[in-house]
Amino acid sequence: QVQLVESGGGLVQAGGSLRLSCAASGRIFSRYAMGWFRQAPGKEREFVAAISRSDGSTRYADSVKGRFTISRDNAKNTVYLEMNSLKSEDTGVYYCAAASIVTMTFPHYWGQGTQVTVSS
């Protein structure tokens, strides 16, 4: 069992930056690819970014490429999402997820989410 707890969300002006963190419990964190999803009001949850278990390969949604950076620290059981040049359309609840593969197909575990609000 893996429990995921997100933090770092908040209110920021357009063009600003935020850094999200996701702390995982358990000693098997390094066995999972980790990712971030988001859900805007009235919209479906969408993929944002993912990082592989060990080689550090990453994937990003086209809408965040060049602005967001995902990273992980297996020693701290934590995955991060650095978000720069934020836009109003980045507003939503951001969820951390753990999956078997970096494509984040059918994540095994989800966090409860952290709210990100970007004011224009």
**Major β-sheet profile:** 7 strands, mixed
Proportion of helical residues: under 10%
What is the CA-atom radius of gyration, in angstroms?
A: 13 Å
**What fraction of residues sit in β-strands?**
over 45%
Which blocks of ≥5 consecutive residues have pLDDT under 50? none
Described by the principal axes of the CA atoms, the overall outline is globular
The count of β-strands is 11
Keywords, please?
120 residues, mainly beta, seven-stranded mixed sheet, four-stranded antiparallel sheet, 49% strand
Could you give a short description of this structure?
It contains no helices and eleven strands. By secondary structure, the chain is mainly β. The strands form two sheets. Strands 2, 4, 5, 6, 9, 10 and 11 form a seven-stranded mixed sheet that branches. It has a four-stranded antiparallel sheet with strand order 1-3-8-7, with no helix packed on it.
Describe this structure in words.
By secondary structure, this protein is an all-beta fold. Helix content is 0%, strand content 49%. The strands form two sheets. Strands 2, 4, 5, 6, 9, 10 and 11 form a seven-stranded mixed β-sheet that branches. The chain has a four-stranded antiparallel β-sheet with strand order 1-3-8-7, with no helix packed on it. The mean pLDDT is 95.
Secondary structure topology:
Layout lengths: L3 E4 L2 E4 L4 E7 L8 E7 L6 E6 L6 E3 L7 E6 L4 E6 L8 E8 L9 E2 L3 E6 L1
Parallel strand pairs: 2-11
Antiparallel strand pairs: 1-3, 3-8, 4-5, 4-9, 5-6, 7-8, 9-10, 9-11
